[in-house]
Backbone:
């Protein structure tokens, strides 16, 4: 029986993530620079084993039971303290625990976006956010980045135009530190200017912050939420990069007035986040496991970033450019206009045995055909070098031969 | 700053669950017959502790890592086998793992429901389904139940009328075994008739099945999915009642054609279900922990049901009726028309120290003011008796005094 005829028209707005599709290639002879997948050697497995053993012997009747939709109270308190150490003033009431930050994005989109509302995003931006927002049909407008992050001057021009056109600007979605997919951080001056614009043009700021906990050089810039005086910044983060993604625990920090709606929305989506995972994060925070992770993560990913940048310097042909991230997991690659990195992906996987994510996926208003995201988080250093060598061959060969000829 | 003005118009469709609100009263001097919360003494804590220890020592790099959106392959295979033992023919490709069955309901609503589509439901039905569906704005039409479950003859009449009115009937949502909130099971003849009607009127059947694993008396009736010959039954279930709700693992069984869309939708909602929780369920299935649970659960909940039915017989005044469930966690109570169980709830909590869920929450087309759901799953036997005694006092006192007088 043909079942497609039962599908909602909404399904036409859904697109499968190329990153997730790419995951299927990992572990074969393809080296993947695809997903932002943590290095499994970074997992504090022994600590977590001990934590789980303690939880299951001392509090199984709580850790295996239903928990409140907003999250386990003790964890919300611990997260508020954790946020406090990053300059964010929050009480447990300002924290809601989510099933990874993907669910946080879904919930925010659900409670905020009406069809046609303008949401600004960095261009390129995190594709999980594009996916979460898309089905609610906002107008997603992109703001380009340079070496200091989002061009807030360009944003201002676009805000003026939007106002003149009578559009409703609801929010901006921004990853200010070690941005996904470019690795770039927003400068201090621009952070301030962005918040001024939010006041002036009266919109919300959704700050996604998975990576700022392990910036490689210098101090981590202050989160926008720590500079927020009017309550219009909604902060979200996750345990995926600082502890383990398999737990699926993220959190939102915002005003209670908004979180009330988030909680009501979450009842209908997942009811609550895994209680067991919440207790793992709770104990990992309490016992200092997360804090001890941070210097380790900095070391692991710095050496991998260095390996990728060195290999790029060594192998890439003229005309190819890339970012030099100060943290996070990604380098953003730009090849000559003549090449289409989406069109080249199949050949990359089949012949050159290397995976990346084509840049178009990260763009909200088209474009980016000659860009790609390269992640250095998962493969060992030697594999990163080899992957860049392969990718450079693909690009060199393709620049020499007209595309489609092979 | 007033933030409400940023909310989407969709938020007006969201309603906080009274069951979740009630959870806040548990553990004080109120005895709760509210949520369908498993008895924590039923959790196989020692087995799960051992499983977690084994997983974290043997495969931490996988169990703490990202996993495919559709679920861990080994778990999908194990679930297909588990389903096979219940007469459902499925391969791993027919299984998608979800963040509890709440997410399964959200995903199905998302991929199936266009505004105005007709979805039939038992009336009363599971309120989590009402919540999940509501924001997609279907016409939810109710079908009453009698002692043999949903009145399929009434359904047929409504289908005819819907067809005459040119309405699009997309699906029926049904909990055929030990229904929530009534505890009633659909008879064998009606199961067959329901599937015939699905063919004749061309709609999907969403079968929610959390409770059939531990029916107290006799054999568990065959799942509708086991009788499905055309692929139009979508089956969903959960580890919440047979293992532990804190894991937040559910699963869907359906045709791949539909599951493809479910997976794309899930990428945007939670990306994937907790890998750690998936490995716990995987090992609990492999080691027979789940199978060993079932007779234990049957015993625990049968004695609690018996205690509740006995106390109802003993304490309830004339004019009060209730169901006699053959399994599951709920008794459905009907009091004389003059009483409004929603209006009485506050008094019940404050003065009589007993919690229940007012029946209106489970109704899709209004009504049910004189009904309530009573859960016997959580409190100890003695507390169940006491709670029913208190509830009976509330009802007797209220029948004597005009409402609102105290």
Residues:
């Amino acid at each position: 029986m043909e079942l497609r005829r039962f599908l909602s028209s909404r399904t036409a707005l859904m697109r499968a993530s190329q990153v997730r599709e790419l995951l299927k290639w990992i572990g074969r002879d393809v080296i993947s620079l695809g997903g932002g997948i943590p290095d499994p050697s970074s997992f504090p497995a022994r600590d977590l084993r001990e934590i789980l053993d303690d939880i299951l012997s001392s509090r199984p009747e709580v850790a295996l039971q239903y928990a409140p939709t907003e999250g386990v109270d003790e964890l919300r308190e611990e997260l508020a303290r954790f946020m406090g150490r990053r300059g964010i003033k929050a009480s447990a009431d300002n924290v809601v625990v989510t099933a990874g930050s993907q669910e946080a994005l879904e919930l925010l989109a659900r409670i905020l976006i009406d069809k046609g509302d303008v949401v600004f995003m960095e261009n390129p931006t995190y594709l999980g956010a594009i996916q979460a927002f898309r089905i609610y049909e906002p107008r997603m407008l992109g703001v380009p980045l340079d070496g200091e992050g989002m061009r807030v001057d360009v944003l201002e021009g676009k805000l003026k135009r939007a106002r003149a056109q009578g559009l409703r600007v609801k929010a901006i979605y921004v990853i200010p530190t070690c941005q996904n997919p470019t690795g770039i951080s927003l400068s201090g001056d621009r952070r301030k200017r962005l918040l001024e614009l939010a006041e002036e043009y009266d919109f919300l700021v959704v700050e996604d912050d998975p990576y700022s906990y392990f910036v490689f050089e210098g101090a981590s810039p202050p989160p926008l939420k720590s500079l927020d005086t009017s309550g219009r910044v909604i902060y979200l983060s996750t345990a995926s990069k600082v502890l383990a993604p398999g737990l699926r625990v993220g959190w939102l920090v915002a005003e209670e007035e908004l979180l009330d709606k988030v909680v009501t929305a979450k009842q209908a989506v997942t009811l609550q986040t895994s209680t067991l995972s919440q207790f793992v994060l709770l104990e990992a925070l309490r016992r200092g496991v997360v804090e001890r992770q941070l210097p380790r993560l900095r070391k692991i990913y710095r050496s991998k970033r260095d390996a990728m940048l060195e290999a790029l310097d060594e192998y890439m042909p003229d005309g190819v450019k890339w970012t030099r991230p100060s943290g996070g997991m990604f380098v953003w690659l730009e090849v000559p206009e003549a090449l289409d990195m989406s069109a080249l992906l199949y050949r990359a996987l089949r012949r050159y045995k290397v995976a990346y994510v084509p840049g178009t996926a990260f763009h909200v208003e088209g474009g980016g055909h000659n860009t790609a995201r390269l992640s250095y988080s998962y493969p060992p250093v030697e594999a990163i070098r080899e992957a860049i060598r392969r990718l450079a061959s693909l690009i060199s060969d393709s620049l020499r031969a007209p595309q489609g000829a092979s």
